[in-house]
From TrEMBL:
InterPro entries, alphabetized: ABC/ECF_trnsptr_transmembrane, Cobalt_transport_CbiQ, ECF_CbiQ
Source species taxonomy: Bacteria, Bacillati, Actinomycetota, Actinomycetes, Geodermatophilales
Organism encoding this protein: Blastococcus saxobsidens
NCBIfam families on file: ECF_T_CbiQ
Designated name of the protein: Cobalt/nickel transport system permease protein
Location of this chain's protein in the cell: Cell membrane
Amino acid sequence: MTGLAVDDAAWASAWRGRAPTDKLLLSGGLVVTALVLPAWPGSLLVGLAAVVLALGPARVPAGTFLRAVRWPLAFIAVGALTAVVTVDGGGLGWAPDAGARAGGLVGHALAGTAAVLLLATTTPMSDLLPALRRLRVPAAVVEVASVTYRLLFVLLESLGAVREAQAARMGWSSPRRSYRSAGLLAAAVLTRSWDRARRMQEGLAGRGMETGLRVLPESQPSSRAFLASGLVLLAAIVGLTLGAR
């Protein structure tokens, strides 16, 4: 089965044995701090803290962390561009405060993304989902997240199998063939994944399964020292940001 780099990093993280709720509270606190504080220097400090924690104490591979931030960065760039463009009678133009608006948007978004990736690269989904149940997140939300997570691996497995078959038939040997193979690959992956999901649902229904799949989570006690360190970090970020204004 094909794996996800972020998921592999979470399983190999030095924070793997820490309580998921501790890491969830830390990352959530960083996200809220990034949203509430001004972009300068608040978002910069939050993003820097998240990256340092991930690459330092959590020992997440730098390449994995940087690759994981690429796609969110593309969405952030598009969002920043649309936020600074104005449309009036004279056509397209730049907003009067385009620089400040784009800088604030990018700063908040990047800091929040880094904080979420800190959680994603240190906490496997098998640990996070039971923690969400203990925090009384609605069961339907947790179940949808669980099914979506499982279907990701179905998609990746189908993608790898179809692409390998196409490569064996020289389907990617030229730009024209690559363009055609890409379309066939997308159609085949969606069709096979839909069929796999349907058969999975029918199999579970045939076994009389009407509720979510419950498993016995691994016992991971909370650490007061870790929580206290997180609070000190958040207080330091808030203090430095307010002191710089």
